Amino acid sequence: MKTLTLSIDSLLEGYDAVSVLYPHVPSLSHWRAWEYAAYQNFSIVGRVLDLGCGDGRYFNLIWPDAKNVVGVDMEPVVAELGRNSGVYRDVYVTAAHNVPEPDASFDHVFANCSLEHMDHLDTVLAEIYRCLKPNGTLVGSVVTNRFVEWSLLSNLVAMAGHDKIAHSLQKDFLEYHHLANPLTIDEWTKSFERAGLAVEALVPILPRINSGIFLLMDSLWHLKRKSGGELGDIVYPFLSANANFPAAFRKVFEGLLDMETNWQDTCGAVFVIRKPGG
């Protein structure tokens, strides 16, 4: 397995690309800047299956030359957005372990931050194996166990002695993200291998400093308001009213990158996994 380390320049280029989509959602532009930079080391051509496709905008940003793409999403409203995007030949509203396509019908499967949310991981990976052509690849991002362990807001509240509130914050955070599989890198690798897939490349994303700030921003954004909704409902209009915010947050992002000392211990990872044969 080849492990790649991202450069600061590539990450800043990633931020410049994704902040066009999410200019005033700092946690999302932060996380996806890392993913984008990692994906630029790889390519996908031919027929592609996008598991957890969403509205298609991020897929199109990463893989603009991929034109023969089928999407899958469980949420009908989201799937309809993907269907209307022009990115996909078709979009199925179905679970990821029940793709209505023939065996060996895709050159690549793309799964961006979706596998960690799936309750039947082994079944999903078996379905990916079935759908891939021999020598085809699964390319995607996942969260690791550090995503839970480094949850900064709940950890800080616990340090202040408010254990009950900290527990409630962590519970809400995990329920929001539905983290069924916050696995270690070794556990992810073993899961892929059980499905008959071979890990070819790994890109660690979001080391400790970046993880802590991302997780703090994300936790605060999705913090439940007593009156209903979440804190992000208040923060977003405030940030979107400031045209300077995306460029200013880029400087914050660059400062966080300068602070990192261990780029291998991370709360996320991008994998390239191959189906043998062909």
Automatic annotation (TrEMBL):
<feature type="domain" description="Methyltransferase type 11">
    <location>
        <begin position="49"/>
        <end position="139"/>
    </location>
</feature>
<dbReference type="InterPro" id="IPR029063">
    <property type="entry name" value="SAM-dependent_MTases_sf"/>
</dbReference>
<keyword id="KW-0808">Transferase</keyword>
<dbReference type="GO" id="GO:0008757">
    <property type="term" value="F:S-adenosylmethionine-dependent methyltransferase activity"/>
</dbReference>
<keyword id="KW-0489">Methyltransferase</keyword>
<dbReference type="GO" id="GO:0032259">
    <property type="term" value="P:methylation"/>
</dbReference>
<protein>
    <submittedName>
        <fullName>Methyltransferase type 11</fullName>
    </submittedName>
</protein>
<dbReference type="Pfam" id="PF08241">
    <property type="entry name" value="Methyltransf_11"/>
</dbReference>
<dbReference type="InterPro" id="IPR013216">
    <property type="entry name" value="Methyltransf_11"/>
</dbReference>
